[in-house]
Amino acid sequence: MNTDLPPVSIVVPVYNGEANIAACIESLLALDYPEEKREIIIVDNNSRDRTPEIVEKYPVRLLKEKKQGACCARNSGIREARFPLIAFTDSDCIAGKSWLKQMVACFQDEKTGGCGGRLEPVPPKTMIEEYTIYKDILSQERALQDEPISPPFVITANAMFRKRVLEEAGGFDESFTIAGEDADLCWRIGWMGYRIGYAPLAVVKHNHRTTLRGLLRQIRSYGRGASQLFRKHHERLGYGGFFVSRPYREILFSIVKIPFALVLGKDKFHRVLPILDFLGAISFLAGKLPASLKYRIKYL
């Protein structure tokens, strides 16, 4: 038994995850980490498919959270967690064998409140998955960059926090029902004086959206989440208003590129690439602008 490794609770929120939850749980059970020093908590968030039935086949703790939302499910897991470190991943993820060992190393520094690991895609089977990888849409490295209206944060598909820090911060803000809750939590933890670390060897593989409709819905949710984050934190960030030029530039550039790509693109992917860029930028604005009007904020 390795007495140097700290005990860790792993929390996985799931909603209608029958297609992926078994593979997720099996990867967690196969972790190179002492069984007596880790617990796996699956929080079912009102699934209407076979998710609970599948989870019950495994030696894990199954919790039920009736209040809808991933934040609610994660907070339920935090309350029930028995150990001082809590790791999070999602039901459509596969944890690498050394995931926990790599993550806990970040917490040798007592000022580390949270840490994120590397998110890698599963091999793409569709053009939409290939596009998501090409655009680096779900990137821990990008999330950790310090931007004017986005301090560093970690994506909760691959993250770990001290339980006492999560409790001190008040957990996840359950008003974030679409996106943005991970950034909100990490910013608050950072402003409390804690460090957010990065463990690049702590790898979790993520299944990306496979359909255009699913991808555009995801991007639209990012736009809505960005507006909600700006509404909540713009004063702390020092901005009364902010103009995000990138999606507008993407629309203009893609309009120019589309006819050339359709004729000169070297393959199918590159022929449709600017079309996907155009649709993605429109979807982000379709989430952001109505939300900004709703919240009465100058976030354009």
Number of spatially distinct domains: 2
What is Rg? 20 Å
Main beta sheet:
8 strands, mixed
Approximate helicity band? 40-55%
Point out poorly predicted stretches.
Answer: none
How much is the average pLDDT?
Answer: 92
Give an account of the 3D structure.
With 300 residues, this protein is an alpha/beta fold. It has two domains: 8-210, Spore Coat Polysaccharide Biosynthesis Protein SpsA, Chain A, CATH 3.90.550; 214-299. 45% of the residues lie in helices and 19% in strands. It has an eight-stranded mixed beta sheet with strand order 3-2-1-4-7-6-8-5, with helices on both faces. A two-stranded parallel sheet has the order 9-10. α2 links the parallel β2 (38-44) and β3 (61-64). The protein starts with 7 loop residues before the first strand and ends with a strand.
Task: Provide the fold topology.
Blueprint (H helix, E strand, L loop, with lengths): L7 E7 L6 H9 L8 E7 L6 H5 L5 E4 L5 H11 L4 E5 L3 E3 L3 H6 L7 E10 L5 H8 L5 H4 L14 E5 H7 L11 H11 L3 E12 L5 H26 L3 E2 L3 H19 L3 H28 L2 E2 L1
Parallel strand pairs: 1-2, 1-4, 2-3, 6-8, 9-10
Antiparallel strand pairs: 4-7, 5-8, 6-7
Helix pairs in contact: 9-11, 10-11
